[in-house]
Amino acid sequence: MELSDYWGALVRGWWLIVIFAVGGLVVGLALPSLGTTSPPRWVSTSSIGSPPTATGPANAGGNALAGNITTDQLLYYGTTDKVLQDVLHATGYPMSIQAVRESIELIGPAEAGAPANAPASGTNGVIDVRVSAPTAAMSIGINTAFCLAMEIEVANQVQTAHNDAISNTEATLARVLLEGYTNKLPFGVTRSAIQIQINTLENYLAGLVVQTPSTTFQVTQAPEATNVTKITSTSTLSKRPVRAAAGLGIGVVLGLLAAVALWMLDKRLKTAKRAQAAFAYPVVAEIPADSSDATEPYRLLWLSVFREPLPLPPVEQNRQLYQGEDPVLEAGVGSGPGGSPA
Fold first, then answer.
1. Is residue 25 a contact partner of residue 36, using CB atoms and an 8 Å limit?
2. What is the pTM assigned to this prediction?
3. 41-165+214-231 to CATH, choices 3.40.50, 3.30.1890, 3.10.450, 1.10.10
4. Does the pLDDT value for residue 149 go beyond 90?
């Protein structure tokens, strides 16, 4: 089928398209809500981190020995299984780690080049925590447990960095002392320089040993009942106009397919191409619809053509001419009554 045939099929099957479209519209309006309305969830917010101080940003450089943790580190710690497992242990809710991870949203400070409407905490060194849960008490409970778990995790990370610094300093001091005792000094290093390095390492190690690790991490905004809001989300398909539009669109598509299918299954000779292919005769003219003003002239043309016998296909003509037959004379064309010439 060519493109014109498809167009003709759609034109002739317009009634199918209308029926299916109206049916789809009625079904879309009559059906109940196709989308489920999710149950209400309660959202609580809090803020944690190391906000800038009067002497400068407290989290500059992320120096864990000084208790400074960057917001990137906080965002990473907040998604680890260890922190989320601590939240589950603290709350006791029958949830999976993945469910806890999906209920917690962490929002950091605005990044350079980010869109103006992008969510951001608004304070350097601080991240906002947004927890959604089926109940207000559950939302606040998870939020509080998360803030506590993050505080413990940051303290553990600072303590680990402090212990690593002591171990690394002790190893370096032992290596330098060994070089001094064995007199295997690096090239260009004198014994006086080695002694200065030993004194510096000993003083630094003594400071680390007596130092108590501390962090600048704090909960800048604790989750409270006043910060809990109720959010109810609905599916788009639950709206009546959307269902009606979807039903109408599906009905139109089904109507188009039905019109084309009906045209392809109908083997009647409805076009000149089909008639020519079926009879192997050229199409001289087409009679328009009965309602057309040009019907009668076409009928007269048809009668004038078909009063004479139709010419045989070229193959049949050649066969009869080869056998010495004249189909025109045998048909009596141009002769009067009784077969005599008129």
1. no
2. 0.55
3. 3.30.1890
4. yes
